[in-house]
């Protein structure tokens, strides 16, 4: 991630934006007052964030800004429509798998850093973020705008991150019901795998003319595949060294498996286009998964995301569609 440079000039602009937001809030008409009342009308509650910091938040937040893929994903799964969000990795909008759901979210940050002025102008009553984004470095500045909750650490289990986000939104019971339904669907899908039970599944992202391994470890991809009883190729076991691990075209055979889940940073349409490109690469057509027509084009933005309930559900859906009998 790029470093965040907050110059004195930028800080002054931020302070002005915050002051302007407060002035707008105080001078707005009845509709503005009601829209921006947030949880104030319903009181406040105190939650403890992922670093042990106690944060006073609205009991019924209405103007929520989410500054990471997992917090946006979780908020949407819990029925919230954030007013501000972070752009997806390598994208100008929110991650493409969330684009149709996040219809009201203005882009106010990148994975590297937030735009504090834009956030202040939205007059949020709650800001959610985690350690997957650079916004964590300026959480003090964010708390000058609105209550900001760090929902999870970098390697936190996505299910725990969902519950933490739900706690901040006062929706824990809904999150627990969501997880109960998901785990039931995992069990039923596992029972339906038939001959693909314990299949070796390779997960790669095609970029810049070559493959990168993704979904290693215990994130939303690795944990879902493991829960389904699916195995991974030797070089896709263990924790990942980063967001992805490039594979040399000279070692293309290491991405082979019974099934190859193939995508890009964007949607399935982008994945189909990339697959045509990959088929022109020497030895790609010799992979067993390719010869057996076991290449599954996936919703890559979800598989490659930092995680969340909707992303995990997408992984489950893609596996079920391709492997279940």
UniProtKB/TrEMBL annotation:
Region of interest (Disordered), residue spans: 33-55
GO cellular component: outer membrane-bounded periplasmic space
Highest taxon of source: Bacteria
Signal peptide feature range: 1-21
Keyword Ribonucleoprotein: no
Domain (Fe/B12 periplasmic-binding): residue spans on this chain: 63-325
Chief localization: other
GO biological process: iron coordination entity transport
Record-stated family: Belongs to the bacterial solute-binding protein 8 family.
Protein name: ABC transporter substrate-binding protein
Organism: Streptomyces nanshensis
């Amino acid at each position: 991630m790029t470093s965040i440079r907050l110059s004195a000039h930028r800080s002054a602009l931020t302070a002005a934006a915050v002051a302007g937001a407060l002035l707008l809030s105080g001078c707005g008409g009845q509709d503005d007052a009601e829209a921006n009342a947030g949880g104030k009308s319903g009181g406040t509650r105190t939650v403890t964030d992922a670093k042990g910091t106690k944060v006073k938040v609205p009991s019924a937040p209405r103007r929520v800004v989410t500054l990471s893929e997992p917090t946006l994903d979780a908020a949407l799964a819990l029925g919230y429509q954030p007013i501000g969000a972070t752009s997806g990795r390598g994208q100008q909008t929110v991650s493409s798998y969330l684009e149709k759901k996040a219809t009201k979210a203005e882009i106010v940050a990148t994975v590297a850093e937030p735009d504090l002025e834009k956030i202040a102008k939205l007059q949020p009553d709650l800001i959610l973020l985690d350690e997957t984004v650079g916004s964590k470095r300026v959480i003090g500045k964010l708390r000058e705008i609105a209550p900001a909750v760090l929902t999870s650490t970098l390697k936190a289990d996505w299910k725990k991150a969902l519950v933490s986000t739900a706690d901040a939104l006062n929706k824990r019971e809904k999150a627990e019901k969501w997880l109960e339904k998901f785990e039931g669907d995992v069990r039923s899908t596992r029972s339906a795998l038939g001959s693909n039970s314990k299949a070796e599944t390779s997960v790669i992202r095609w970029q810049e003319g070559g493959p990168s391994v993704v979904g290693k470890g215990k994130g939303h991809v690795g944990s879902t595949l493991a829960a389904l009883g699916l195995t991974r190729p030797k070089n896709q076991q263990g924790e990942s060294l980063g967001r992805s691990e490039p594979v040399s075209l000279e070692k293309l055979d290491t991405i082979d498996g019974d099934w190859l889940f193939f995508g890009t940073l964007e949607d399935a349409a982008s994945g189909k286009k990339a697959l045509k490109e990959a088929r022109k690469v020497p030895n790609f057509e010799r992979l067993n998964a390719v010869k057996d027509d076991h290449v599954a084009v996936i919703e890559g933005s979800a598989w490659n995301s930092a995680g969340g309930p909707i992303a995990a559900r997408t992984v489950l859906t893609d596996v079920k569609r391709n492997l279940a009998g």
